[in-house]
């Protein structure tokens, strides 16, 4: 009976990778929510500004590392589904799905390793407590001038002014 299940080890091992992906996705989503702001979101932590922010939301820092991490976690979870089907579809000692099983397993390992390394590398300097995080959210929304629209030509200069205002506190 044991030799009729050659893909079982791959399936069980990949289950651990899927669990890691689920944990990383939770962490990335929590960071994304806690860093939402700067004025109208939760805004408890500040994340590094790795890329230019939004031209229509002055002062916003895009959580690109969190988004990249959640995307690769989705891919690992999808690989797990395919790997489980491949593991279940082998007949007797011959499993024609073995190349797909091995490919998906190795891809998941590489995605998780590279994703965690990138997240760690680009997150340095992040996780700072945002000034004003102790203020009630309603006060931060009122201070942000909710509903004020910027004319197109002023968006960039308005964004720069908002960034300076945020840095001053």
Automatic annotation (TrEMBL):
Residues 122-146 are annotated as: Disordered. One of its GO terms (molecular function) is fumarate hydratase activity. GO terms for biological process: fumarate metabolic process; malate metabolic process; tricarboxylic acid cycle. The gene is fumC_1. Keywords: Lyase. InterPro entries: Fum_hydII, Fumarate_lyase_CS, Fumarate_lyase_fam, Fumarate_lyase_N, L-Aspartase-like. It comes from the Bacteria. This is fumarate hydratase.
């Amino acid at each position: 009976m044991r030799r009729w299940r050659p893909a079982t080890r791959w399936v069980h091992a990949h289950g651990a990778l899927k669990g890691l992906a689920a944990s990383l996705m939770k962490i990335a989503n929590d960071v994304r929510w806690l860093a939402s702001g700067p004025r109208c979101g939760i805004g408890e932590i500040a994340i590094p500004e790795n890329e230019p922010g939004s031209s229509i939301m002055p002062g916003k820092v895009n959580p690109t590392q969190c988004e990249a991490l959640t995307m690769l976690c989705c891919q690992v979870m999808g690989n797990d589904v395919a790997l489980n089907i491949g593991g279940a579809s082998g007949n007797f000692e011959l499993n024609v799905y073995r190349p797909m099983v091995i490919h998906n397993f190795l891809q998941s390992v590489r995605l998780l390793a590279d994703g965690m390394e990138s997240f760690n590398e680009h997150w340095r300097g992040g996780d700072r407590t945002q000034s004003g995080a102790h203020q009630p959210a309603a006060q931060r929304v009122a201070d942000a001038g909710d509903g004020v629209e910027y004319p197109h030509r002023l968006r960039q200069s308005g964004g720069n002014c908002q960034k300076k205002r945020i840095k001053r506190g």
